[in-house]
User: Fold these one by one.
Assistant:
Number 1:
Amino acid sequence: MFPKPMTLPSSHTYHYLLLCLFLLHHLPPCPATSGHWSLLLPTIGISAMHMQLLPNDRVIIFDRTDFGPSNISLPAGKCRSDPNDMALKRDCTAHSVEYEVSSNSIRPLMVLTDVWCSSGALIPDGSLVQTGGFNDGERAVRVYKSCDQCDWQEINSGLILRRWYATSHILPDGRQIIIGGRGQFNFEFYPKRSPEEKAQNMSFLVQTYDPEIENNLYPFVFLHTDGNLFIFANNRAILFDYINNQVVKMYPEVPGGDPRNYPSTGSAVLLPMRIVQGVVAVVEVLVCGGAPKGAHINAKNGKFDGALDSCGEFKYPTRILNGGTAGWENGRGPVLKPVIYKPDDPTGSRFEVQKPSSIPRMYHSTAVLVRDGRVLIGGSNPHERYNFTNVLYPTELSLEAFSPSYLDPSSSVFRPKILSFPTRFQYGKRVVIPFKVQSLVDMNLVYVTMVAPSFNTHSFSMNQRLLVLDGGNTTKIAGNSTYEIGVTAPPSSNVGPAGYYLLFVVHRDIPSEGVWIHVE
Ligand SMILES: *[C@@H]1O[C@H](CO)[C@@H](O)[C@H](O)[C@H]1NC(C)=O
Ligand SMILES: *[C@@H]1O[C@H](CO)[C@@H](O)[C@H](O)[C@H]1NC(C)=O
Ligand SMILES: *[C@@H]1O[C@H](CO)[C@@H](O)[C@H](O)[C@H]1NC(C)=O
Ligand SMILES: *[C@@H]1O[C@H](CO)[C@@H](O)[C@H](O)[C@H]1NC(C)=O
Ligand SMILES: *[C@@H]1O[C@H](CO)[C@@H](O)[C@H](O)[C@H]1NC(C)=O
């Protein structure tokens, strides 16, 4: 039923599997009754094009600034005057909001320059450092430090080059790398080591560039445990030593050669990485979706090809709800059913179809995992401006939550509850985590995971990391239905860059509510 995983040539003891998946209707028929959707807010005033969870359980959400008024005013009668704005020189509406999970409420924020199709990463102190965009925002760096009154701070010309549709990734030294963007076949770092630090050319982006549709935008970037970057653009991947600007390994083209990066929007997931005695033996990347060659041009001419795929999530999802050729007015055939991907199950039964949503989430929609295990889903705007009438898919301002099947009430007796925990994890040090479970615990089915909060836009989550910590199956009884498990913090900043992670105790594949810990 499913194509066999393709094992690519291994590098050292590691290897990648690139699994290419097929259309949803190729999935075995499933009752699709698991999971639960709820509408959190019918409108947050903006369409959620970018989302990032912060370590205080607030989500920074932003759209673009250059299309006219949004549906929410700036606070306290404030207005933004921007002579460069293409629609409104004086705009009293907000294009960014902060969502607080606990109170289910939003607060409007003022972003000063155009953040359209930009990128970002949380830095080790928990601030969001966000880069690039369009027009007056193309070289901006913006910092969001969270507090009850905080707002965006901007560093003009923080980047050397314009970055529109670039990908960011946090690095083991705490800086971030910003790769590519429209018309940019190069990368740079933020912050710079010195004022002299230059952007560097990257031949892989030249080689994967298709001038007709620019199919290598928003490349899929992951930090490998050996410190190199895995970079997928268009239809192939490399392992890249960014320190010496050298390709360490070149992977063959994906069979068929169809493009998978923006605007042929597919997605990619770094599968859970299991640490055993300080080593991650296998690193797997799942690349899904994309569009057949020519789909983008066809869509411009009114012919809508099916997406190459729509596919799965894994146990702690960064979602992949939709795919296919992206762009204004290009969306057709929305995928409403999320799919959970279980990488440890036998091929052929790894996908679990979940209950469908009733709201199509097209181009410019986003999703992030929050601490309690739900996935927030917002946005969808396949139009140049906000358009709520006489269009196939109106601009969507709502915010929904999807509760995957692991949150179903039938799982609650197995769900661990973390009792107390150390908040600081030092590399390689052992930590003991006490927890409680209502049912009898199956000692062999308890493990601890750490999930990095990623930056989501355009069907991709930047800075993905899900670590399964060393020390599974060491559960001990501590008292009346209380237990403790001893685990080892990640061995190095290559395996887990410093910063905030959500930690979960998992029992029988049912996760606890997460707790925030800081790796240092
Ligand atoms: C957004 O504002 C426009 C203009 O005021 C209005 O027509 C529209 O109904 C609003 N949409 C939503 C979903 O609130
Ligand atoms: C980088 O690429 C640009 C554009 O192709 C070229 O002009 C420049 O010389 C290159 N720089 C280096 C250091 O190779
Ligand atoms: C919305 O889209 C329709 C169809 O293209 C168009 O006729 C209408 O003018 C648009 N409305 C706005 C407010 O842009
Ligand atoms: C725990 O033990 C079981 C049974 O021996 C094994 O299948 C499983 O992989 C182990 N889990 C971990 C996290 O070590
Ligand atoms: C454990 O639970 C039982 C039954 O609820 C109770 O009688 C006993 O005192 C508890 N023991 C401890 C150490 O809390």
Number 2:
Amino acid sequence: MTRISLVRKLPAIGRLLDDPVLGGVLELYGRDAVRVQAQREIDGLRHRILAHEHASEPSSDTDSLSIIGLERLIEDLPRRIAEQVSLSFRGMRRVLNATGIVVHTNLGRSPLPAEVVEEVVPLLTAYCDLEVDLDSGVRGERNRAVAPLLRNLCGAEAAIVTNNNAAAMVLILATLAKDREVVVSRGELVEIGGSFRIPDILAAAGARLREVGTTNRTRLADYENAIGDDTALLLKVHPSNYRIRGFTEETQPDQLVELGRRFGLPVVVDEGSGLATRTEHSRLKGHSSLRELLEMGCDLVCGSGDKLLGGPQSGLLLGRADLVESCRRYPLYRAMRPDRFTFAALEAILRRRLAGRPMPLDSLWQPFEPLRRRLEALADALVEAMVKEGVKDLGVEEVEAQGFVGGGSFPDEAVPGPALAIHPADDELARRLRLGEPGQVSVVGYLRDQKLMLDLRTVHPDDDVLLRDAVIAAVASPASPSPREREQP
Ligand SMILES: *Cc1c(COP(=O)(O)O)cnc(C)c1O
């Protein structure tokens, strides 16, 4: 058979869509969606066959496919289309986080406690008094319920909430420093990840950056020398995700406060992680809490509501009543104010926080013994399943792993703890676990030295059974060929 006749073997799209293999996805996603994907696959395959025909380099990738290989790809078309359609329409999925990183931004930061979700449901499935004062019946203010909780927790004069901390920063800078200068240390011109870069945030807010000092050393005198008629405020940013070590000097917030007072300039601190008080996580060092910063006299501070606090995505903006009020009245706040879901969940989280209930980060320092028992149960079940399925080439053992706070916070804080290692493991096993074998939950672990690591500190014990079944299914499933192998005859 020539390659041109292979092209003729490519099925017509109408016939392809009638293939029973596509019945399921047709029903779920509709004919149009499947047709688009089918056309894409046919075009791709035609291109490959023709490229193959014209390939002059025998070693080229396409040429390594034999005619039989190409014929198989044609036969495999319906299955591939079904797989691609399912992948491209895959919605958000529940994931078990076995990375040991508590505030995992890519996995939604930290989970909300189930009780909190139950508490907010009645506020979401009905109307609520988001912006009405039920006492007088007149229009109210949406920060009404959370503001006193935040004031109480952090010792602030006033507080408002934004959609996230990045928004809080932009709002502060736009309100207080539009078209004027903001003095920042060169050691704090950081990028936090997900495109939060201090110089860009300043530019977005219309403020001018006045950088002072050097990467590793910035003295009080550097700030002082930069102050001029155009200076709007002094800004300090917690570098969060990196540390400068060695020959360093950093100006402390209380020194900046003293300087600000002398020149009548507000001092603003982007604390970042949402550490409300020192006692909250006494193990976390070298970082002033929101409460401490306010006690030092900082005029405005901001942090995330969904990092250490474990709340919904939000920004906490706290400080001097007049400045907070200016921010709240600034027109941009309209574009940054959260909805009732955020306010309701944050309120519930703050109440728990004030009542001293456990916080997500506590799991990082949980005692080893119960953890070891969970790991052992998982290992035993896994070994038993592997014996039953005849999987002989995998080992399972407990190893020491490092857990992290995550969310770009406290990069130095690696917390050792036991984890399960499955080895030798490759990307394909990790992928099967991530995607979840049919009927199984998705599990995200990580690879280290050809070991698939599962850290249970970030998995709720109630989910251990789901985790076990997912790992067993991924390990015991007949090793599905890698995409490359799939295309070889
Ligand atoms: C995380 C962080 C931000 C961004 O906060 P989001 O809530 O993700 O917008 C900004 N600044 C610092 C210092 C941070 O740590």
